[in-house]
């Protein structure tokens, strides 16, 4: 693992703990010699995690759509800033640059980006580890919803187990270093799948 993609809010959130967690992750990345790949912004948790990596001597690659550059939220102090045409190109480029994906607290964009990576992995497009790095149980309700998906047979239990969730940064990195992707099929019921043809 050489680079880690971090998805997170373009706002800092309501609690200092969110900022503290972003700083701790950034510092850990720099200590591990891992490059940060992120959305290229200088605002919210995005800017905080990037600044933490840079302050600790690490490298940061930002990937940002041209529209957001025009809104003057691009971080001009990163190691490299790549400007792309749109959000679709941004997600593909961040996927290509990254060996793993982490979501810190965030909003619609954070969930959109992480769930696209989870969907690609489920479909065999990628096999890179995905983790939700929590703070004050921010993601606990979401994990409950994912568990409900398993209970209602919309998601394979092995694919649920293939997703890391917790608050311990060191434990998350240990999990990523030993990661082996789930080998389960997307389809829950072969008989039912055949009946849909």
What would you say this structure looks like, in words?
The protein has 197 residues and is an alpha/beta fold. Helix content is 47%, strand content 15%. The chain contains nine helices and seven strands. It has a seven-stranded parallel sheet with strand order 4-3-2-1-5-6-7, sandwiched between helices. α1 (16-32) packs parallel to α2 (44-55). The chain is globular, with a radius of gyration of 17 Å. The relative contact order is 0.14. The model has no long low-confidence stretch (mean pLDDT 93).
What is this structure, in a nutshell?
The protein is α/β, with parallel strands linked by helices and 197 residues long.
Number of helices, counting only DSSP H or I runs of 4 residues or more: 9
Task: Give the neighbour order of strands across the main sheet.
Answer: 4-3-2-1-5-6-7
What oligomeric state do the depicted chains represent?
single chain
Shape: globular
Helix content: 40-55%
Largest sheet: 7 strands, parallel
Structural class: alpha/beta
Uncertain runs with pLDDT below 50, 5 residues or more?
none
How much of the sequence lies in strands comes to: 15-25%
How far apart the termini lie comes to 40 Å
Q: How large, in whole angstroms, is the Cα Rg?
A: 17 Å
